[in-house]
Design goal:
This protein is mainly alpha-helical and 473 residues long. It is 71% helix and 1% strand. It contains 19 helices and two strands. It has a two-stranded antiparallel sheet. α3 packs antiparallel against α9 and α8 runs antiparallel to α13. The longest helix is centred in the N-terminal third of the chain and has 32 residues. The protein is globular and about 70 Å long.
Length: 473
């Protein structure tokens, strides 16, 4: 396993090529992925009424904004890449940080990538199959191809990856604006469904439906923390990190609420619930023969979000290796392209392995359950720093009530699914997370079997043309 690297001048450094525009595009590009095209009907199914679903979307956006404020302060106190992993490492210690890295690299990131890849492939193939669903084999083959193409793009050059992110962000925001305008036009004409007339009828107020509805909605907001994963690659992170967060997240939140209003103007709750892809159904009703445009937009949106997820997610694996919590080879970068190609290739291999099984709703629920556990751990670390180490310089300081509220929300989101109706799957997820301790003790703490890993590292280092790196501090 790797030992912690120092910042010696003879080591490579990743390029700092993410400016304010790139930062905003990365956040918005990951957030506006498949969720807003797929999740609204699931939110409606669980919460029961159009009015309550809009409240859930607004509350989820507010939670993402408050959490991002906490991350903005953390990012200016701990100016290292890695997101939750590095913050937990610096505030809670090695074991919890390793469990975070282990869960993120083997479950959270691969399942998120697979969900995006499958939705990209499903929507890309839909226009070619008018009367039926695309074959499952074709969907998975295209999903695998998309993952491998983006692996090449991200390994080739940081700037090319950011360029792809900016372009696809523009496309997906344009698609959402089209949906908003279409809803406004129909609302002005008065040609609407009865969704807005029975606003809160059928609302479910028990804990589990509310928690699961938040899970489905927060899936669409996931990515609000992406820029903290690449802090060392941001130009002037003390300025551009908080600015990008405060531009991107409110913009996405407003768009999401307006898009959901447009959906409810065009479709009845029954039509939304029965839809396999609510944006495509909206397109068929409003655009007529041009309804396929929404399917293409959903595919491009998922593809762009997948690219952003690649870019930010690969850095978690890279930083964990640099800190000695993963094999040394994963902390290296290409000698000429200065990209963390071993970490990106590793993420790709894991994602392709878990591509075979897959259930969209299950992926969202289990992903959110584990993710919000680590978000809560991260925010509790901020509370620790604010109380115990207030003297550390900060570019931005948030009132202490904000991390307290976010921590309470995280506790609710972790406990909500298991309070009313406990399911064994959540126990399995928890057990898997804790199994990281079994790996940590022999391989990290006791450092057993170093010889085999060292030989493999030397071989891969020569084969991939990579070398150790130093922090961009």
């Amino acid at each position: 396993m790797a030992t912690k690297k120092d910042s010696s001048p003879d080591k490579l450094k990743l390029k700092t090529e993410v400016g304010l525009l790139g930062g905003v595009s990365l956040i918005a590009g990951i957030m506006v992925g498949s969720g807003i095209f797929m999740s609204p009907q699931y939110v409606l199914i669980y919460i029961g009424s159009p009015g309550a679903s809009l409240l859930i979307w607004a509350a989820s956006g507010l939670l993402a904004m408050l959490a991002s404020l906490c991350y903005a302060e953390l990012g200016t106190v701990i100016r290292e890449s890695g997101g939750e992993y590095i913050y937990i490492l610096r505030t809670s210690g090695n074991i919890m940080a390793f469990i975070c890295a282990f869960t993120s690299n083997t479950v959270l990131r691969p399942t998120s990538m697979i969900a995006l890849a499958l939705i990209f492939a499903q929507n890309a193939l839909t226009p070619f199959y008018d009367d039926c669903q695309p074959p499952n084999g074709a969907v998975k083959c295209l999903a695998a191809l998309g993952i491998m193409v983006l692996t090449v793009v991200n390994c080739f050059n940081v700037r090319s990856s950011i360029t792809v992110t900016v372009l696809f962000t523009a496309v997906k925001v344009l698609a959402l604006i089209i949906i908003v305008i279409g809803g406004v036009v129909l609302l002005i004409q008065g040609d609407t469904s009865n969704s807005l007339q029975k606003f809160f009828e059928g609302t479910k107020l028990s804990i589990r439906p509310i928690g699961i509805a938040f899970y489905q909605c927060l899936w669409s907001y996931d990515g609000w923390n992406a820029l903290n994963h690449v802090t060392e690659e941001i130009n002037r992170p003390e300025v551009n990190l908080p600015r990008a967060l405060m531009i991107a997240i409110p913009m996405v939140m407003i768009l999401y609420i307006l898009v959901n209003v447009s959906y409810l103007v065009v479709m009845t709750p029954t039509e939304m619930i029965s839809s396999s892809a609510v944006a495509v159904t909206w397109g068929n009703k409003v655009l007529g023969g041009w309804g396929w445009v929404m399917s293409v937009a959903a595919a491009l949106s998922a593809f762009g979000s997948l690219n952003g997820s690649f870019f930010s997610g690969g850095r978690v694996c890279y930083v964990a290796a640099r800190e000695g919590h993963m094999p040394d080879i994963l902390a290296m970068a290409h000698m000429h392209r200065l990209t963390p190609s071993p970490a990106l290739i590793f993420n790709t291999i894991i994602a392709l392995i878990v591509l075979i099984p897959g259930d969209f709703q299950a992926i969202v629920n289990y992903f959110s359950f584990a993710a919000w556990f680590f978000y809560g751990m991260t925010v509790s670390g901020l509370l620790y720093l604010k109380i115990k180490k207030p003297e550390i310089p900060r570019t931005i300081t948030v009132p202490i009530i904000i991390p307290i509220l976010v921590l309470l929300a995280a506790v609710f989101l972790v406990l909500a699914p298991i309070i009313d109706d406990p399911q064994i799957e959540y126990f399995y997820v928890t057990l898997f997370m804790l199994s990281g301790i079994v790996i940590y003790i022999p391989l990290i703490h006791l450092k057993l079997f170093p010889g085999l890993l060292n030989k493999l590292t030397v071989f891969l280092q020569l084969f991939l043309e990579v070398a150790p790196t130093a922090k961009n501090l």
